[in-house]
Each structure stands twice: as structure tokens, then as C-alpha cells.
Design brief:
alpha+beta; 33% strand
């Protein structure tokens, strides 16, 4: 009987260790935005539209907003600037369930730590569609954007395995928004 208790203890311990070590994305305190889809084109008049997905699963859309704050050359934007951008957005009817949001946001850490392929020129006058995920830095109060994929005049993509899944998911959301 003692041997069976010992084996049960070992099995339970192994299950606990394996499930306890599962890597998942942990929302940082104060992080509002997780993802952004953005289209910019200067070829046929200024076009700038897209959406954010926030930590509550809201989809916030924008179309040619005045006074937009763009991230710096390091893809960093202060939380104040980002909040000003969010004030220019409209909450869309689309919402992302907590399960779906968790499914895709858990890949942010992996995408953020991966490299991006070199941009390749594929045409002209297409503009650029960019897919981003964000990590919030509590110390600086800023967001760091990480490119998942870029399409248009130039293409490149994050080399992480999950980046294609996340970009495809975001493209589906963009397609649903365009239908409305």
C-alpha cells in the first residue's frame, strides 16, 4: 500500500510540475493594448486606417485620425501618446472572447524575442499593412511594438512559428471589419 501511495504522489507531482511550467503570456499591470493592424498609403492620397485590440478584447478602429502619434524609430510609444490615439478610435461591434484573446496573446513573448526577415520589395503604390503586438514596460510607462508581418510595397515577417497564426487571425478580423 505504501508503494501505491508513493507512485500516486510521484504522478501527481509530475502533473503539477508539467502544468505549472506551462509558458503563457501574463498581462502586465497597466497594459491596455495587445495588438494593432495598420494600413498606410501615401500613393493615392493619404490613407491611414486600422484597429487595436485591447486587453478587454475590444476592437478599436480608426480611419485617417487627426493628430496621430506614431511610434519612434525603435517602435516605442509612450502610454500617454497611445492613450491619445485610442481616444481617436471607435469601439467596433467585433469583440474578442477572453479565451481567443488568451490563445493569441500568449504568443507575444515568443514573437517579441524573435527576429524579423529582411524587407523584400514586391511592388509600388500598394502602401503598407503592418501587424504588431505590444509589450508594456511599467518602468518607462511605454509600449514597445513588435512587427509580426508587413505586406504591401515591401514584405517581411517575424520568424517565430506563431507569427503566421497571429497575423492570419488579425487579417480575419480586418476582413470582418471591412464587410461591415
Amino acid at each position: 500500500m505504501r508503494m501505491s501511495n508513493f507512485i500516486a504522489f510521484i504522478l501527481i507531482s509530475v502533473v503539477f510540475v508539467l502544468t505549472g511550467c506551462k509558458k503563457s503570456y501574463i498581462m502586465r499591470d497597466g497594459q491596455t493594448v495587445l495588438f494593432q493592424y495598420e494600413y498606410i498609403n501615401h500613393a493615392w492620397g493619404y490613407q491611414h486606417s486600422g484597429f487595436f485590440i485591447d486587453s478587454d478584447g475590444n476592437v478599436l478602429t480608426y480611419d485617417k485620425p487627426e493628430g496621430w502619434n506614431f511610434a519612434d524609430s525603435e517602435n516605442t510609444i509612450s502610454s500617454t501618446q497611445l492613450n491619445n490615439n485610442l481616444d481617436k478610435c471607435t469601439i467596433n461591434d467585433n469583440t474578442i472572447s477572453s479565451g481567443e484573446l488568451s490563445k493569441y496573446s500568449r504568443h507575444i513573448e515568443n514573437i517579441a524575442s524573435s527576429k524579423v526577415s529582411s524587407p523584400k520589395s514586391v511592388g509600388a503604390d500598394f502602401g503598407a499593412i503592418r501587424y504588431y503586438c505590444y509589450k508594456y514596460d511599467e518602468m518607462t510607462g511605454s509600449y514597445k511594438g513588435f512587427l509580426i508581418r508587413m505586406e504591401g510595397d515591401y514584405t517581411c515577417e517575424n520568424l517565430n512559428y506563431y507569427s503566421k497564426k497571429v497575423a492570419s487571425w488579425m487579417a480575419e478580423i480586418a476582413s470582418e471589419i471591412k464587410k461591415r
